[in-house]
Design a protein that fits this description.
Helix 8 (290-356) packs antiparallel against helix 14 (646-715) and helix 9 packs across helix 14 (646-715). The protein is 69% helix and 9% strand. It has 1001 residues and is of the alpha/beta class. The protein is flat, with a radius of gyration of 61 Å. It has 21 helices and 15 strands. The two termini are 25 Å apart. The strands form three sheets. Strands 2-1-4-5-6-7 form a six-stranded antiparallel β-sheet, covered by helices on one side. The chain has a six-stranded mixed β-sheet with strand order 8-12-13-3-14-15. It has helices spanning 41-53, 128-139, 143-149, 159-162, 165-176, 179-212, 224-288, 290-356, 358-397, 401-421, 427-495, 525-563, 570-637, 646-715, 721-727, 731-762, 770-832, 842-865, 907-928, 948-960, 975-980, and strands at residues 2-11, 14-21, 30-35, 78-85, 88-95, 110-116, 121-125, 151-152, 870-874, 889-893, 898-901, 936-940, 967-971, 983-988, 995-1000.
């Protein structure tokens, strides 16, 4: 960021408008700001910082204190800054909150941020929070970091040098964008925690599978090999049970099949006896219905004779019906012709009356045309008067004053929200620090919990160790007794074969005064030795477990001492964790409140814009409506007067139109009705003649048909037509009669055949007892069901055991794979979050690498300014507690060959170290970041603390960096510095305020 023009209006000690044109430096990159004390030199830096961030350089002046006491009431306090960054020109105009010269409600804090597009300034933002965010994104520094890096304020130039590690970490994170390293370490740690939890969950599932097995065992004490042996023995046992169950089921099934065959044979024989009885009952039924069969035969014969007569009877009946229908139609047609003749005369009279009214209708049509013309003129005038009334009403409603009052009220609300938002600006950073502290405390609590668990386990091992040691010593004594007894037993065996005069095979003696007597041995040597070895192995395993626990306890003690503050106890760390969690909840609530206030502020800004737009629109609408009213008044004055009103004309018009329309409808309807009556009358007269002729012909035909019918009735032996009708049946009825007769014949024939078959089946047979056979089969089937259920149950249990074993083996493979992954990821996560010898997180490690580069560049300048005496060094020792470290500074003094803290430097030495650090930081950031542009540096005082030699060295250092094009502005009273720099900004103090003059020699 390089300033081009800074304009101050009624700002600080400057009463009017003062402008500093940095482009007039003509290529010079260093300038001195000089003037008397209190003239306003530091105010220039305040104005520059206020324009960018809305805060002063030192952060000690309130916004309400920025207005000049020398300014006239009408002059607004305002700062305008134009600067360039990465080839683009930007401008910020900002006014602080200040009193209004007339109204009680003062001006609120307002600003405008714009970019020059080559032709004009294009606004980028007008809302205070948005401008602050855009400036921070553009410069990539907040106000505090800007004051520590680019601006060394008066009496605060040591802030960056003396800042704690946590503050330097925030600065480096902002400058070098190391957030993704921190996010990576957090993701890796979360992945490790998730993997550990998943391994634990998998082991729990594995134990659950083992607990489902039908075995009694303490699975946690068994090795994988023992578990597999138990599983193999279980599957072998269940396979043997399943084989025996299969054999028993098959034997029972054979018995059931045999009993089923016997029952089926008995049921078949019983069915034959029952069939024989049923056939006898059927024979009796056939005998009883013989009379009905005879009657049906007679009915069928008569129906067949009636079939011959039926065509003649049907034809005679049709002719008779046809004659009746023709006579009825003839009578109806004659009556209709009479009615049509009467109707024709009535319609003709109506048509004649309508033709006589046609001249009156033509005169009414001409009057209707005149009425239409008068209505159109009246409608036009009415529309103009309605528009005039509507515009008058709109003009009364348009009043901008309520919007102006609402605008002032919204500005007051915006100021209140801004005041509430100011103390919440750093909530995000505090919340991030609190989260990191909580994470560290949680790790410490985990270590304390593990320490307590291992300490309890160590105490248990001590108690068990005493018992196991006693068991080992008892087994050793028993082993020695067994060996001694074995030797005595061997000696006794050997003594049995010794006689005097023969040499002993052991000692060679030929005399044997006392023979060893055999004693019963309580415990064999092999068993005693095995027990001793087992006890010895148990003791060794216990000692190994104790050493492992003790080593881990010692390691945890070291880690806890390194991590905890002032050697805090477990309870104190838990209390700190609860306090941090409460703080985190409070900060989360504050963050929510901040977001709410920012949203509210944004809404208020939008409301201000909308209200201003409404006010402008109301004023514009007033002007337009007044113009339209004047135009309408002129047009209405030109209109004439009318005799009738519009409603009267409309009523007369409607009556005329109704009368004409009704006449035309009546005329057309009567003409159409007359034409239709003429056609209908001619048609019905012709039909009457046709029906008269057809009736005569049909009467002759009916007489002939009646003679033919009586002849056929006599031939078929039907005395009367009624007898024929009684005997007549439909073809379907005749077919059914024949079918029933045929069915009766077949039933009798089938009955005789079945009776013979049943006699053959039951002849010589004894009727079986089916109930006894069924009970026998049921007993055998129940036994088969029981054995089948046992076999199915064993198969399901065997399949379930296989599923459990398969699931256990799958989980075992999964645990092995996850343990291998956790061995890598867990170690990386532990180191990444700071559980290492340096107690340094991965992100801090990256930041220290950048900081080392900064120190390397800073030491080049410090070497020149101190003639090689001082060199800045980063403190690498890990401090106690949870305090962040890694970026604290020491200084090496070549005169004493000792390293000491930078706080021990004198005022002049601190100024040179701070200046060197600022120069080194700007160089490294400019080269490495690419996003942060540190083209400018401002120094407020500090040179007065230097001796002549140090002053010369500092000046030479600043002059040497001009080749890089970096702009350096210095506020100083030192005469030698002012004489060495040919570009000066002179601030002159007066009774009516200060003024600014740029002097380039």
């Amino acid at each position: 960021m390089r300033p081009e023009r800074l304009t101050l209006r009624a700002f600080g000690p400057f009463a009017g408008e003062e402008t500093i044109d940095f482009t007039a430096l003509a290529g010079r990159t260093m300038f001195v700001i000089s003037g008397n004390t209190g003239a306003g030199k530091t105010t220039i830096f305040d104005a520059l910082t206020f324009a960018l961030y809305g805060e002063t350089s030192g952060g000690e002046r309130e916004m309400s204190e920025l207005r000049s006491h020398f300014a006239v009431p009408e002059q607004k306090t305002e700062v305008e800054l134009e600067f360039t960054l990465k080839g683009e020109r930007y401008r910020i105009i900002r006014q602080p909150s200040q009193p209004h010269p007339v109204n009680k409600t003062g001006y609120s804090h307002e600003a405008e941020f714009a970019r020059f597009d080559g032709v004009a300034w294009k606004p980028l933002a007008i809302k205070i929070p948005e401008i602050k965010q855009r400036v921070q994104e553009l410069i990539q520094l907040d106000h505090k970091q800007f004051s520590q890096i680019l601006l060394l304020p008066q009496n605060k130039f040591r802030e960056l040098l003396m800042a704690e590690s946590k503050d330097k970490l925030q600065i480096l994170k902002q400058l070098f964008k190391t957030e993704h390293y921190g996010e990576f370490q957090q993701r890796l740690n979360r992945q490790a925690l998730d993997l550990a939890a998943h391994i634990k969950e998998t082991k729990t599932k594995q134990w659950a599978k083992l607990e489902e097995l039908p075995l009694q065992a303490n699975w946690s004490e068994l090795t994988e090999a023992d578990i597999r042996l138990r599983m193999e023995a279980l599957t072998t046992e269940r396979d043997e049970w399943l084989t025996a169950a299969h054999e028993a089921e098959q034997q029972t099934r054979t018995i059931v099949e045999s009993k089923t065959t016997r029952l089926q044979q008995g049921e078949q024989l019983e069915a034959a006896f029952q069939e024989q009885e049923q056939l006898q009952r059927t024979e009796q039924l056939l005998l009883e219905r013989s009379s009905d069969i005879k009657r049906m035969q007679e009915e069928a014969t008569a129906a067949e004779r009636a079939q011959i007569v039926a065509p003649f009877f049907d034809q005679w009946q049709q002719d008779q019906e046809q004659l009746t229908r023709l006579k009825r139609q003839q009578q109806e047609t004659e009556q209709h012709v009479t009615r049509l003749t009467e109707r024709q005369g009535t319609v003709q009279d109506k048509v004649n009356r309508l033709l006589a009214e046609e001249p009156q209708i033509e005169q009414l049509s001409r009057r209707l045309e005149k009425i239409q013309e008068e209505c159109e003129r009246l409608e036009a005038e009415t529309l103009l008067r309605q528009q005039q009334q509507q515009l008058t009403e709109r003009l009364k409603q348009l009043d901008p004053e309520p919007f102006r009052k609402q605008l002032e009220q919204t500005r007051t609300e915006r100021k209140t929200v801004q005041e509430q938002l100011r103390p919440l600006q750093n909530v995000g950073a505090e919340r991030l620090q609190t989260q990191e502290r909580r994470f560290t405390l949680q790790q410490l609590v985990t270590k304390f919990a593990e320490y307590d668990r291992l300490e309890a386990e160590r105490q248990q091992l001590i108690v068990r160790g005493t018992s196991v040691r006693d068991q080992k010593e008892a087994a050793a004594r028993a082993y020695e007794v067994a060996r001694k007894s074995e030797r005595e037993q061997l000696a006794a065996e050997l003594a049995k074969g010794l006689t005097d005069g023969l040499a002993c095979p052991v000692c060679g003696s030929t005399s044997h005064p006392q023979h060893t007597v055999a004693v019963a041995q309580e415990l064999s040597v092999d068993v005693a030795q095995q027990r001793f070895l087992e006890a010895q192995q148990a003791h060794q395993e216990l000692q190994a477990s104790y050493r492992t626990v003790a080593e881990r306890l010692q390691q945890l003690t070291i880690e806890i001492q390194k991590t905890s503050e002032n050697e805090s106890t477990h309870a104190e760390v838990l209390a700190q964790l609860r306090e941090v969690e409460q703080t985190e909840v409070r900060l989360a609530s504050a963050q929510t409140e901040k977001e709410r206030l920012e949203t509210c502020l944004q809404q208020l800004e939008q409301s201000l814009e909308q209200l201003q737009v409404k006010i402008d629109r109301v004023v514009k609408d007033q002007t337009v409506i007044e113009s339209e009213l004047a135009h309408l008044t002129g047009r209405l004055s030109q209109s004439g007067e009318f005799v009738k009103s519009l409603s009267a004309l409309r009523e007369e018009q409607q009556q005329a139109e109704t009368r004409i329309e009704q006449f035309e409808q009546d005329k057309q309807r009567q003409l159409r009705e007359k034409e239709q009556l003429d056609r209908d009358l001619a048609e019905h007269q012709g039909r009457f003649r046709q029906l008269t002729e057809a009736s005569a012909e049909q009467s002759d035909r009916l007489t002939k048909r009646e003679k033919e019918l009586h002849a056929v009735l006599a031939e078929e032996a039907f005395p009367t037509i009624e007898a024929f009708r009684d005997a007549r049946r439909s073809r379907e009825d005749i077919r059914l009669l024949h079918e029933r007769l045929e069915q009766d014949r077949l039933e009798r024939q089938e009955l005789k055949l079945k009776q013979e078959q049943a006699r053959l089946k039951t002849e010589g047979q004894v009727r079986p007892d089916l109930e006894l056979l069924r009970m026998d089969l049921k007993t055998a089937s129940l036994e088969l069901t029981e054995r089948t259920d046992r076999r199915v149950g064993l198969e399901k249990e065997r399949a379930h055991i296989d599923q459990l074993i398969t699931a256990w083996e799958s989980l075992q493979r999964q645990i092995e794979d996850e343990d291998a992954r956790y061995g890598v990821i867990g170690e990386l996560a532990r180191v990444g979050v700071g559980e290492n010898a340096q107690r340094m997180t991965f992100e801090t490690y990256v930041q220290t690498a950048y900081f080392d580069e900064i120190l390397f560049a800073a030491n080049r300048h410090l070497h020149e300014m101190t003639s090689g005496r001082f060199q800045l060094e980063r403190k690498t020792e890990a401090g106690k507690g949870l305090k962040k470290y890694g970026l604290d500074l020491n200084v090496f003094d070549a005169y004493t060959s000792q390293t000491r803290h930078v706080k021990t430097l004198s005022g002049g030495e601190s100024f040179k170290a701070s200046l060197a650090l600022a120069l080194g930081l700007s160089e490294v950031v400019q080269e490495a970041s690419g996003g942060v542009s540190l083209e400018t540096m401002f120094i407020d005082e500090g040179f007065g603390t230097l001796d002549p030699e140090s002053l010369e060295q500092a000046i030479e250092t600043l002059l040497s960096i001009q080749a890089s094009g970096r702009m350096v502005g210095i506020i100083s009273h030192v005469q030698e510095l002012k004489s060495r720099v040919d570009a000066k900004i002179e601030v002159k103090q007066g009774k009516t305020g200060s003024t600014i003059a740029l002097v380039v020699e």
